[in-house]
């Protein structure tokens, strides 16, 4: 018998509208069984869990299950749940098929970091905000608009960031972009125009971000990391660096916060050299063992660029990010953005503005904070019981955790997981090319699975750990 159900909604591409939803769901299930994507004996999620994943009424899923049971595609027994029925193989009429690859016992779980639980997106609340925002929007909101972004969004962002993250901001210092990568690409062009040649980066981080900087013609020397975060005291030794990219609240991916002394050292370096600190505050709202640490920008708003995004708190598909700039940088960033570079739609900006102003954003963050904290606690408990030689490092925060492995085990665990249908990434995947080899570890994105897939993903993870 195969393992429990994995994430389902992402594979079906259903349009959840009108009377066609139930028939569309039934046809998608038939096709999944017919093509072998759902093997005989596979246990389906409960009607409640699948309805939550798809954003539909529970009765819609329950009725679809019942009809497919009647047709013989599924079976349902008390205490055993709903499963794919075992069917006789069709008689072959053509040449024999090529030998299949070895079957994988996993359910296709994804524990790569970087994505929130998309099943938790607040569809109903977002729709209410969109309806209200668009009803009240002036006609000019649908024109080309201000390259800074809609003033409605910049106004509520300034208030929210000051309250929740300790950021010193006013609407005229905020530029709205289509995500963090867009912000960083613009800053790379501005820094290059300022004749900056090097931007220091942390020795572990996303290669996408370093590539954006190198594509702008910038060199990227790396700063070492330890249990207190990035060693910012070594910035002074990098004579060519005109800026540094940091994740101070929760270093990605190692999970440690920047020590207060090192926060101060970074600001002192920026003041003494005229350099800039680019603060990536990607998940600063999600800390579980204490109140979130305030943003580094509050120490010196004229030397720190604060970069935020809705990708972790809501969904990356919204393509909404922002930067709070020193006053001296606003004009240059707007010029770099250009007249034609307005890639963030104004309806979504207006909707997010209403979503924040109504309090729905705060409620959603609180709800997801509880969900992610519960998952992290379950991860730690499962490791203590089933993999006691593996420990979790870093603070209790964010949407990912680092699992320390025995020396030499990282590659073999990642390969074993891939064979089982479990997507994992090792810590080495994020190491800067110039950084020395470090310890063996996994970077586990416990925020990625849907609610119905989380238990199966955690079970699959424990099976491949040493």
Output the radius of gyration: 24 Å
Structural class from helices and strands?
Answer: alpha/beta
Basic shape: globular
Q: What's the pLDDT, averaged over the residues?
A: 88
Number of helices: 14
- End-to-end gap: 24 Å
Strand content: 5-15%
Poorly predicted runs are 1-19, 89-94, 96-107
* Biggest β-sheet description: 7 strands, mixed
> Total strand count, please?
17
Instruction: Write out the strand line-up for the largest beta sheet, numbering strands in chain order.
Output: 4-12-11-10-9-5-6
Helical residue percent? 25-40%
Describe this structure in words.
With 466 residues, the chain is of the alpha/beta class. Helices cover 39% and strands 13% of the residues. It has helices at residues 9-12, 20-34, 47-54, 58-71, 123-136, 151-165, 180-193, 207-215, 260-273, 327-337, 346-357, 360-386, 410-419, 451-464, and strands at residues 74-77, 81-84, 109-110, 174-177, 198-202, 222-223, 225-226, 229-230, 241-246, 276-280, 304-309, 321-324, 391-393, 401-404, 422-423, 425-426, 441-444. Strand 1 (74-77) and strand 2 (81-84) form a beta hairpin. Helix 5 (123-136) crosses helix 11, helix 7 crosses helix 10 (327-337) and helix 12 (360-386) runs parallel beside helix 14 (451-464).
């Amino acid at each position: 018998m195969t393992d429990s159900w994995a994430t389902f909604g992402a594979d079906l591409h259903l349009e959840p509208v009108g009377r066609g939803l139930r028939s569309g769901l039934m046809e998608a299930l038939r096709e999944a069984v017919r093509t072998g994507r759902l093997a005989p004996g596979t246990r389906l999620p409960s009607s409640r869990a699948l309805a939550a994943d798809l954003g539909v009424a529970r009765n819609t899923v329950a009725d679809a299950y019942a009809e497919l049971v009647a047709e013989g595609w599924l079976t349902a027994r008390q205490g055993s749940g709903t499963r794919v029925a075992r069917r006789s193989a069709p008689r072959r009429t053509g040449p024999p098929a090529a030998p299949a690859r070895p079957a994988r016992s996993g359910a296709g779980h994804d524990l790569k970091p970087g994505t929130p639980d998309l099943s938790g997106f607040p569809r109903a609340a977002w729709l209410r905000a969109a309806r209200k925002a668009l009803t009240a929007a002036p006609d000019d909101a649908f024109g080309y608009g201000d390259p800074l972004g809609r003033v409605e969004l910049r106004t509520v962002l300034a208030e929210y960031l000051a309250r929740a993250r300790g950021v010193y901001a006013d609407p005229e210092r905020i530029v709205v972009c289509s995500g963090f990568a867009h912000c960083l690409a613009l800053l790379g062009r501005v820094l290059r125009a300022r004749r900056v040649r090097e931007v220091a980066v942390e020795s572990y981080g996303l290669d996408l971000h370093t590539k954006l900087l190198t594509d702008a013609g910038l060199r990227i020397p790396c700063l070492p990391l330890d249990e207190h975060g990035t060693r910012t005291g070594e910035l002074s030794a990098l004579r060519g660096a005109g800026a540094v990219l940091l994740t101070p609240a929760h270093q990605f991916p190692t999970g440690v916060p920047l020590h207060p002394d090192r926060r101060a050292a970074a600001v002192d370096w920026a003041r003494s050299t005229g350099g800039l600190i680019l603060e990536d505050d990607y998940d600063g709202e999600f800390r579980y063992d204490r109140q979130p640490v305030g943003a580094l920008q509050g120490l010196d708003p004229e030397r720190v660029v604060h970069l935020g995004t809705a990708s972790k708190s809501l969904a990356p598909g919204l393509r909404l990010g922002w930067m709070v700039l020193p006053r001296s940088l606003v004009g240059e960033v707007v010029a770099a953005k250009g007249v034609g570079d307005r890639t963030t739609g104004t309806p979504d900006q207006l909707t997010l503005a209403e979503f924040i102003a109504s309090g729905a954003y705060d409620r959603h963050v609180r709800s997801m904070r509880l969900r992610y904290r519960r998952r992290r606690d379950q991860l730690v408990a499962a490791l203590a019981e089933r993999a006691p030689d593996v420990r979790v490092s870093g603070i209790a925060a964010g949407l990912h955790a680092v699992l320390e492995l025995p020396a030499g085990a990282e590659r073999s665990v990642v390969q074993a997981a891939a064979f089982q249908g479990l997507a994992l990434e090792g810590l080495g995947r994020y190491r800067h090319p110039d950084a020395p080899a470090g310890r063996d570890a996994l970077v586990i994105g416990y925020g990625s699975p849907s609610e119905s897939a989380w238990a199966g993903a955690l079970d699959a993870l424990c099976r491949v750990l040493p």
